[in-house]
C-alpha cells in the first residue's frame, strides 16, 4: 500500500534515502541528518529523508536570491502563466498527492484531496493576481504632480509550515509570492517531508521546463538546524511561519530583531456559540465536522462550544450521541468509511490525555470519548488513534478553557446572555476563528460588529474551520495578526513605494513651505 501511494506521488519506493533539499536544476541532495517519515496510522517508516544542514540552507537562500534577480524581471502575466502550469500539474496529481497527505499526515482521504484542491484554488487566485496586483494613483497638493503607490517584490520569502496542512499552507504563500515576483525557500514540518518533496518535484519540473531557475521554489527539509538558519538569514526578507504560539514568539522576535518582515499564523482556541434561535440540525452537522474532523488537528478546529441555557439540554445529548456514532468511524484514514484518522504523533496523544486529566483535576467532567482507540486490524496497532471527546470544564474560567489542545477535545459551557458568550469567546489569548449559530439578525449584526467577536474569522451558521481561499485567512492577538491566501494578503509580500512625480518645471514644496 505504501509503495503504491509513494510511487503515484512520484517518490522512490526502493528504500533509498529520499533527497529533501532542492535549490535549482540538478541540486537535489541533503547533507544533514537523515530523518524518518513515520506513518501516523501504522507506525511504519515511510521513507528516510536527507535533510539540510545550516550551510545548505544558507546556500539555498543565496541561490533563491540570485534566482529572484532574474525572476523579478519576468512580467506579471508571464508569471501567471507559470502558475497556471503549476496549477495544472498539481491538479493532474490531485488524487496521488491527496493520498500522500493522508498517508503521511493522517487526515482522511477526502480531506487529503481537499487540501490539494486548496492548493489548486490559491493558484487560480494567484493567476488573476499576476495581472491585477495593483497600486494606486493619488492626487497631489502640488500642481502638475502625481503620487503613485508602487508594489515591487520583496525578494526571498521563507515559508515554514506545520504538519497539519503539509501542502495547502505552503501553496497560500508560494502562489502569491510567484504572482508578485518573489523567490521562496520552503521548510516543511520535520514530520511531513514527503508531501513537500512530492510537491516541489512537480513545481520544479514546471519551472525548469519554462527556463526559470528552480531556486525560485527552493526546499530545505529538516529540523531546528535548517529552521534557525532560515530565520536568522538577513537575506530572507519575510518569514511566514505557521505553528505554535511558543515557537511563533521565538521566530517573530528573532526576525524582528534583524528588522525582517514576519507573517505569523499561530494558535487558535476557536469558539462556536449556539443561540436560542439557531437551526439545531444545521448546528449539529456543522459542529461534528468542525470539532472532531481532522481529529481536531486544524488550527481552525472548534475547541469551545458555548450553548444557550434554553437549548443546552436538547442539543448536548444529540451532540454526545453523534460523537458516540463517530466511534465506529475511527481508523485507517485511507479507507473511505473512516471519518476520524489518527493523531499525528504519539506526543499529540499524550497531550490529549493530559488535557483530559486537567479537565478532571479542575473539577470538570468528560461527557463522551477521551479513550485510546485500538483498531482491530493488526497493521494499525501502532497508530495514534483516540476517541474524540466532549468535556464540560468546571467553569469557563477554568484554565483548560483558555488553552488550545491540538487534539479532538471540545469544551462546553452554558450561557444566559449573548454578551456573556461573546466575552468568553474574546476572553482568551488567541483570536483565530469563531462562529455564531443564530437566525436572529440582531445577534448576527452584533457578532460581526465592534461589540462582537475579536477573531480574524467571524462566521455565522458556518464551521470555524474549512475556510475558502477567497478571503484573507488569519487571526488576531496571540494568533499573530498574519493574513494569508485571499483578500489583501498579497500586499504583505511586496515592498510598497510611494512615488511623487513632478511633471512640471516648477518646484513647489508641500505644506506651503517657502524656502526661497
Ligand atoms: C490550518 O489549520 O493551519 O480553514 C489551516 C481551514 C483550512 C485551512 C486550515 N482551509 O480549516
UniProtKB/TrEMBL annotation:
Key words, A-Z: NAD, Oxidoreductase
Aldehyde dehydrogenase domain boundaries: 32-496
InterPro entries, per database record: Ald_DH/histidinol_DH (IPR016161), Ald_DH_C (IPR016163), Ald_DH_N (IPR016162), Aldehyde_DH_dom (IPR015590), ALDH7A1-like (IPR044638)
Coiled-coil residue windows: none
GO molecular function terms attached to this record: aldehyde dehydrogenase (NAD+) activity
Family under the similarity heading: Belongs to the aldehyde dehydrogenase family.
Entry protein name: NAD-aldehyde dehydrogenase
